[in-house]
Every structure is written in structure tokens, then in C-alpha cells.
Design a protein that fits this description.
The chain is of the alpha/beta class. Helices cover about 35% and strands about 20% of the residues. The strands form three sheets. Strands 11-10-9-12-13-14 form a six-stranded parallel beta sheet, with helices on both faces. Strands 2-1-3-7-8 form a five-stranded parallel beta sheet. A three-stranded antiparallel beta sheet has the order 4-5-6, with no helix packed on it. Helix 5 (about 120-140) runs antiparallel to helix 11 (about 265-285). The longest helix is centred in the middle third of the chain and has 21 residues, at about 120-140. The radius of gyration is 21 Å and the shape is elongated.
């Protein structure tokens, strides 16, 4: 059962954090917002927010130093947590990247800090808005339809699995690449054409390439074999898996599409964070 005694404060972040707060409030929790005065009249000051039992920081907690990013606040410099280490010590704190939090506040207890982005349920659920956002990028940045296009999805992880199914459902001719023999077996079993990542024999046939692999795959040698009007959408975290400088020289259009859930579907993304946090708290309560 949910404990009505727990109170939450959501400190900064983008619209995901705003919708996270709304979801918690709709589920009956007391929630304070800090850093959202452009979106809500419920906004409070940092001192009041720190009175809550549980603090929720953004996926990437800090803009610079100890300042939390607040794009929806009139205070463009962000929420400054300098000088609040004592207040933070006994709090349960959720964030996306706890290593960044510890680098700024090394005296905090590891037992009280949790990274919701490390949870499998978070990653799996986020694969859907990421895939939808990737397809949206392809539609608005190309001159042809997904239906009938020859498309390569590089990588068969969570996002690659969801993305390839969505593209097939839209009528695309989908090839999926992977390195592991087990992944290649699943690709074949699920009815896709498969190829080994990096060993792209027919790469010149693709209209669109989606990369999900967070290491350099599309280097200069491979890019030279891609047709010039191909669109490459890289979903991998920085620095990505594409030599963007070389692609530009070759005249190949590339898009490094990061943080798509927050940009394309912030409400769904916020609700995913909420459900992940509540699952963690339920486990902690036994």
C-alpha cells in the first residue's frame, strides 16, 4: 500500500519532471514543486522544498556545478544547492545520474541515493517514446514515406526491438544488425533480415539508418558507401555511433536525436519516472 505519510519535492528539470509531479499528486501524494514558476502557481522556494521526505532531481541533475537546470523558471541560473549538504544528508533522493550527484556532494549517503534510470523497467518503458520520437524525426526530416522504405536498425537492444517492430508495422523493409549470435538468431526468428553490425554488405540500399549502438559504428569508410540522400538518425548517447564530421563532408544528413521521451512525450515520460520511483519505494518498504 502507498504511504500517505511520504511527501515529495520535485526540484527542477524539464516537462518530464512537471508531469511526474502531477502524476504523484493525482495518486494522492503531497508534492512540492521548485523551479517551475512558468508552469505552475504551486511553485515553492528551495528551503520549503527541502522539508519533504523524498527529493526528486532531474534525469541529468545539474546544469553546472551544484545548480539544477530549471528551463521553466524565471530564474535562468537554476536552483543552487550550494550550502544545503546538511539538509540533503538524511533525505531519500532520486535522480537519473547519481554519479553526478555524488561528484558534487561526496558526503551524501549511498544508501539514500537512487538512480531511477538504472532500473530495467524504466529503460524498457522508455523504449516506446524513444522509438516513436525517432520515427517522428525520420518523417519530418525526409522527403519520402516510411512505408516502402528500406531501413537499417543498428542494434537489437530495448530500443532496437521496439523500433524495428514499429517500422515494420508501417510497411518498411527492415533490416536489423547485431553483433551477438544470440541477437542475430532472435532477429531471424522475429522475421527480420539480419546482418552483423559493421559488416554492412548492402549498406548503399538504405533510405534511412537508425543507430542505437553507443560506440563508433558508422566511421568514414562505412559512410562513403552510404548513398548521399540517406538519412541517419543516431539515438545513442554522446558521443554517439556516427562520425558526424565526416558525414557532413560527404553531404549525408545526420540527426543526433537525444532525450526523445522528454521532447516528444513528456507526460508519458514523467509517468514512467513516477511508476519507477514508486516501485523502488515499495520494494524498500518490503
Amino acid at each position: 500500500m502507498k504511504s500517505k505519510k511520504k511527501t515529495f519535492s520535485v526540484l527542477g528539470g524539464d516537462k518530464r519532471s512537471y508531469y511526474l509531479a502531477k502524476a504523484l499528486r493525482n495518486d494522492g501524494y503531497e508534492v512540492k514543486l521548485c523551479g517551475f514558476d512558468k508552469l505552475s502557481n504551486m511553485n515553492c522556494e528551495i528551503a520549503a522544498a527541502l522539508d519533504s521526505d523524498i527529493l526528486i532531481l532531474p534525469l541529468m541533475p545539474f546544469k553546472e556545478g551544484k545548480r539544477i537546470n530549471t528551463p521553466f523558471s524565471n530564474n535562468e541560473s537554476g536552483i543552487d544547492l550550494s550550502g544545503y549538504e546538511d539538509e540533503l544528508k538524511d533525505k531519500k533522493i532520486f535522480t537519473g545520474k547519481k554519479d553526478q550527484l555524488f561528484s558534487e556532494f561526496p558526503k551524501l549517503s549511498h544508501n539514500n541515493i537512487c538512480s531511477y534510470s538504472d532500473r530495467e523497467e524504466f529503460s524498457v518503458k522508455n523504449a516506446v517514446p524513444t522509438a516513436e520520437g525517432a520515427i517522428n524525426q525520420a518523417i519530418i526530416n525526409s522527403d519520402f514515406t516510411i512505408n516502402g522504405s528500406s531501413i537499417l536498425v543498428c542494434g537489437y537492444g530495448r530500443i532496437g526491438k521496439v523500433l524495428s517492430e514499429m517500422l515494420r508495422g508501417m510497411g518498411a523493409e527492415v533490416t536489423v544488425s547485431a553483433r551477438k549470435s544470440s541477437d542475430l538468431a532472435w532477429i531471424k526468428l522475429n522475421g527480420f533480415a539480419g546482418t552483423v553490425t559493421g559488416d554492412f554488405q548492402d549498406i548503399s540500399k538504405y533510405n534511412i539508418i537508425f543507430n542505437t549502438v553507443p560506440s563508433m559504428v558508422f566511421n568514414g569508410d562505412i559512410l562513403k558507401r552510404i548513398k548521399q540522400d540517406c538519412l541517419i538518425i543516431d539515438l545513442a548517447s554522446k558521443p554517439g555511433g556516427v562520425d558526424f564530421e565526416e558525414a557532413e563532408k560527404l553531404g549525408i544528413k545526420t540527426i543526433h536525436a537525444l532525450s526523445l521521451p522528454g521532447k516528444i512525450a513528456p507526460k508519458s515520460a514523467g509517468e514512467i519516472i513516477e511508476s519507477t520511483i514508486l516501485s523502488i519505494l515499495k520494494e524498500d518498504d518490503g
